[in-house]
Amino acid sequence: MGERPTARIPVASESGYHSPQLDVAVRLNTNESPFPPPPGFVEAVAEAVRGVDWNRYPDRSATRLRAALAQRYGVTPGQVFAANGSNEVLQSLLLAYGGAGRSVAVFEPTYAMYSQIARTTGTRLLKGRRATDFSLDSGTARRLVLGEQPDMVILCSPNNPTGTPAADGLVADLEEAVGTYGGLLLVDEAYGEFAHGSAADLVSEDRSLVVSRTFSKTWAMAGARLGYLIAPTWCVAELEKVALPYHLDALKLEVGVLALDYADEMLDRVESLVAERDRVAHELARLPVTTWPSAANFILLRPESRPGVEVWQDLVDRSVLVRDFTAMPGMDGCLRVTIGSRVENETFLDALREALR
Hints:
- It is built from 12 helices and 13 strands.
- By secondary structure, the chain is α/β, with parallel strands linked by helices.
- The protein folds into 2 domains: about 10-35 and about 265-355, Alpha-Beta Complex (Aspartate Aminotransferase, domain 1), CATH 3.90.1150.10; about 40-260, Aspartate Aminotransferase, domain 2 (3-Layer(aba) Sandwich).
- The mean pLDDT is about 95.
C-alpha cells in the first residue's frame, strides 16, 4: 500500500469542535432551549412533510423563508441569507471575504468556532483581548482594527461563553472603523433575543455591517440547524456564490417559515428564561463562586473553593452536565451553565452546593 494523502496543515492540526454529549439526567452544556416547540408548530411541521416534493430539488433561492425573515426585520429579501445554522453563515462569510492573504479579527475569549473556521478557510487570525471582566471597550477594539485593518471583524454579542453584551456605541464605532479601509463587521447575535436591542437595526446598503442570528436558541430548533444573516444586498450576492447548490433542504425551508408564525409563543419563553437566569444568578451569588452579568441564556461561573475541573466532574457524577471552560485561555477555572427549566436549574443548584462542600 502506498502513502496515504494528508490533509492541509490547518485542517490536520485541528481537533474539531467538541462539546461532550454524555448520558446524564440534566444537560445544561450546549445552550439549547429546555422546552420543545409549541404543539401547534409540531403538528404544522407534520402536515408540511406530507406536502414536500421529495423527488424534486428544493427552492434554491429560499424565497419564502427569506421573505418571511425580511418582513420580520423590516428589510428586503435580498438582504437575507439563510444557511445550515449560523456556523454555515460564518463559513460562507469567510469563504467570500477571507481566505489566503486575508485576515479576520476576533476578541477573545469568545466562541471557539470563529478561530476554527478561520483556520480551515486559510484566513489569518488576529486576536484581540477582552478586559478581565470580559468587557470590550471601543478604544481597545478600534486600535486593533485600525492598526491591523483585518478584512473581517467578528463581534459576538451577547458574547459566548461570557454572556457579555456589546457596550453602547461599540458596534457603530467598529463599523465606522472598518469602513475607513473596506473591511466587514459581523455581529453574531446567536443569543440576541435574550438581550436588549439588536445591531440588525443598523444594517443598510451603505454600511459594512452584517448581523447573524439562529433558530437554535430562541426558537427551540437546535435540531433543525437553521441560521440566517441580515446584510446589505451586495454582501448576500457574494455569499450566494460560495454556498453549495440547494444547501437548504425542502423540509428545513418549510420549518423556518412555520416557526416565524409562533413568534409570540417563542418570545414568551424568552421572558421565562430571562427570569430564570436572574433567579439562578441570585442563588449563585450566595455560593462561593464568581459570576459575571449575562445577557444570554447561560451564566459563566468560577468556583472559588475547589478547582473548576473537579467541580465539573462532581456535577457529572451527580448526573448534571455543564460546559467545562477551565482550560480556555483567559477563563481559568470557569464553567458555563445553560439556563434550563426550573426543575433542571434546581437540580443543578443542589448538585453544585454539594460539589462545593
